[in-house]
Amino acid sequence: MTLGMQSVGFGIALFLTAGVPVSNLPDALGDTFGFGVLLGVPVPILMMLSILAVMFVLLNYSAWGRHLYAVSSNPKAALLSGIEVKPILISAYVLCALIAGISGLLLKARTASGDANLGGSMALESIAACVIGGVSLRGGIGRLGNVVLGAIFIGLVQNGMNLAQIGSYLQIVVLGMLLIVAVVFDRIRQKRLYRL
After folding, report:
1. pLDDT tens readout for residues 3-30
2. What is the number of other CB atoms lying within 10 angstroms of the CB of residue 48?
């Protein structure tokens, strides 16, 4: 679903812009959301911390979070337990789309450009951060704090590759290899859990 919608959105953006970056964005957009500072903290950091706080409460202290873990782990068992699966899935997709939209706004404000090619590798980076953070691709397993650590790890790896002057194309290869290694370890972990 994620990769399919990314392809649809990317195609629509290229069609609407004819592949040409949109420029002449209002300066207030960049000044507020890209480089703004509130109480001595950059606005993008404040927005990230706010989203993390809301997600932490939702995932750990709400019925919706418990239902989401149950549905992602085993939809049939969740349905038999009385959980309405479709509303949980739809709300999860809507929430992900909202967060992706906020991320796109912040990226656009930071670069002062509406380029359709901007952030093309972010789906790979996001999936890699989640899997490295211990989220199971089969669902039902994962913690928000570990995903944040996975994202920090991906950022450190990218920063290290930039400092080592590794080309952007090779960086995508390295991220793909990290994702493969993380998926292999996830499969090994799943097999050990099933043996117990």
Report:
1. 787 788 888 888 888 778 777 778 887 7
2. 17
147 burial via Cβ count (<10 Å: 0-12, 13-18, 19+): buried
* pTM value > 0.85: no
Average pLDDT on 65-77 reads: 90
179-182 long-range contacts (CB < 8 A, ≥24 apart) are 179/124, 179/127, 179/128, 179/131, 182/128, 182/131, 182/132
Segments in 114-167 forming alpha helices (H): 122-132, 144-163
Say how far apart CA 161 and CA 170 lie, in whole Å: 9
Give the tokens for residue 135: 């989220």
| Nearest-5° Cα angle at 15, 11 to 18 | 125
DSSP letters spanning 1-30: -HHHHHHHHHHHHHHHHTTPPB----HHHI
Q: Locate 160 and state its tokens.
A: 């290290």
Domain boundaries, the chain: 1-118, 121-196
pLDDT in tens, 136-170: 777 777 788 889 998 999 889 889 999 998 887 88
